[in-house]
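Journal club prep — side note

Before the paper discussion, L.F. wants everyone to see what a predicted structure for a comparable chain looks like in token form. Sequence:
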Amino acid sequence: MPQDEGVMRQRGKAMRGKAMRSRVILAGLMAPMLIAGAGDPVFVVRGDGVVPAKLGGQPGKLLLSPWAPAAPTLNPGYRTRIGLHAGLFGFSVKVGPVKVRGDTSVTRLDYQGMSYRRRVVWFERDYAQGADAAVGPGGIPARVVRFELRAPSGGERETVLPLVQQMFRPSYARVMLGKRPIILLFDPQHPRSLATAGAGAALAEFLGGELQGAPQPAHVAFGIMRPARRLKFARPLVFGGLRLDEVLVRISDNGSVAGVKDADADPEEVVVTAKRGNERRDVVIIGRDLLDRCAAITFDKPAKQIRLACA
């Protein structure tokens, strides 16, 4: 082999090695990434979870969130930019007394090296905060999705909860308080943990406790604020390495808190109770007040587990 040709090949190998190292460094700077380990790749989401994406070929920002639905959910302005047309049948969701109308269509999603078609939804109100659309772990085509909330401190304990997934809903854990099922959602964007009235009543019955303070507005979804009060437990709710001493409770939505002891009760107050429908879901959104103690939340779909690493 001529000397010049050998030098050129050596230089080519060196350049390819540098390029490969550059790609590795750049990959490490990206918010989400696929980490190949001994088992299946894990899709890792870091930081605020907002990544560049294209939906229907239109550039935008996609929020990868633990509490977002499995169906990618678009803000209405982004849907207009994409030019999606609604299907024959619409639907609606209710946040307290507020009904929010929605529609669906099918389009292609491109982000973080993945490209796939999926049924998407949008509503007449914005859903994604700080982005054009949002999708939860149930809608990310990876078997294991890990949200890294902060660097581990070394003192974390792992808490394992049963994972429940449904097509249009967020991924959640279902736990039992006595004979009452409670749905746990996880959202680092909610500053404080928030329970529906039915969940608050179940927690107070199981743990003891009382409502304290005046009503305050609490954000639920779609920019909708609902009145809530602080429920202080007599005994903490402990699951694994997590301890919940109090929660904000929506005082009139999805159940009733009329039976919960009120530390600030007015004897002249008239209590209005909500009807208890058969389809009521008792939900607690675990917010940043608790998740600040967690390094990561892992959604393991094959194992049907949610694993929280918390100090």
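L.F.'s comment for the group: The radius of gyration is 23 Å. Keep this in mind when we get to the figures.
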